[in-house]
Amino acid sequence: MVAIILVIIMLIAAVVAAVLKDLLGAVIVAALVSLITAILFYLLQAPDVAMAEASIGAALETVIFVIAIRKTERFEDK
Amino acid sequence: MSFLNANTYYIAAFGLIFIGLYIVMAKKNLVKVVIGLSFVDSGINLLLISIGYIKGGTAPIFSRPGISPLKMVDPIPQALVLTAIVIGVAVLALALSLVVKLYQQYGTLDIRKIRGLKW
Amino acid sequence: MRKIIALIFLAILLWGITKPVSRIPFGTNKIKVAEHYITKDITETGAANVVTSVVVLYRGFDTLGEVTILFIAAIGLASILYLPRKKVSDEVLEESSLILRTGCRFLFPLILLFGAYIFVHGHLTPGGGFQGGAIIASGFALIFLSCRERVVSTVKLGVVESLAGMTFVAVGLIGLATGGYFLLSFLPKGTLNMLFSAGIIPVIYVAIGFKVGSELAGIIGNLMERTQ
After folding, report:
1. What distance in Å separates the CA atoms of residue A51 and residue C117, rounded to the nearest whole number?
2. C89 touches chain A (CB under 8 A)
3. Nearest to C123 by CA among C68, C203, C59, C39
4. What is the pLDDT along chain C (228 residues), one digit of tens a residue?
5. CATH annotation of B2-55+71-106
6. In chain C, which residue's Cα lies nearest the Cα of B83?
7. Is residue A76 part of a domain?
8. How far is the alpha carbon of C156 from chain B, nearest alpha carbon, in Å?
9. Of A32, B91, C85, C183, which sees the most CB atoms within 10 A?
């Protein structure tokens, strides 16, 4: 049951990241997707992978994306 | 409902892969494309881990005596995915450095306006 | 037009994928190779964490290749973003606030300690070189983002990284010299669930932890500094 709710939230977040025009917002929502993926790994009895995904997907990837957006531009033009 | 219950993780994995592929194919902003690639990455990792899962299994760690080895989930996909995640972030950083260089060259992130190599 | 083509392509892909995947029902027992690894793990390697012994010993060659891919990606990033020395960004840096500086000074050593704990205990508990290295790199990301007056030298990170990589290869070669094959576990196995056990697994995982941590920190540093 927990897994179904998490999966629904994750897929909605992924669609939101696809639709948003603000790239910074899209990156933050993508970090949410990574975090929920980490919880799903934990539920699938893979604690090693869950730790790697939580520290890399939610922290380092976001930092790298934010640096790249700061060097380029923030809004996707229409 | 039982279909949903039985295949939750497969649906999650393929949902992520398809959303990511759609972003890669349909979006025109380069940073968005890289976000889509990262979604495909997590989706494939989730698929591999859920293939290795066994119902009622325990994590493959002998943390206390008395854990039966026969109830453990498959450790090989976990070992593969562990390294794949770390490589994924390095490749993502490489892709973003290319994006930054393209922005410095052309002043835009829109792939329709970057036509240096098109005839 | 582009979206329609994309959706058609994805529909074809979905139709093609459902058939093979429906033959792999979720949650059933399908272990064949892994059965050997799980049942023989304690007698053969002496590590409590089976994932660790698969990553470091049974498939140690794979791990060496994957660490090499990481290294090549970092080199590619540094050479794409190459700037001559004098041009490296002298943009005016904003002073970080007192709260940010104090918090960063307080948290950075704790993050390093936690990362070291994770990769030293890699053969006993969940965790290991890759996770610990990622945690250490996120500590360096904190320094790069919030504590700008404390300069981290990417050259020194590169030195640490290549020393760690050389340790990995050297330990593997010692195994080749003494026992006959690469990455032979030539150290005593010890007792299960003790810190000094499991042969060469802790040595290699500590090396991988240093390598991944300095590599990812160097990637972030290059992205921050080498671009305007």
Report:
1. 13
2. no
3. C203
4. 778 888 898 889 888 888 888 887 777 776 677 777 887 777 777 778 888 888 888 888 888 888 888 888 888 888 888 776 555 555 556 677 888 888 888 888 999 999 889 888 888 888 888 889 889 988 888 888 877 666 777 788 888 888 988 888 888 888 888 877 777 777 777 777 777 777 788 888 888 889 888 988 888 888 887 765
5. 1.10.287
6. C66
7. no
8. 19
9. C183
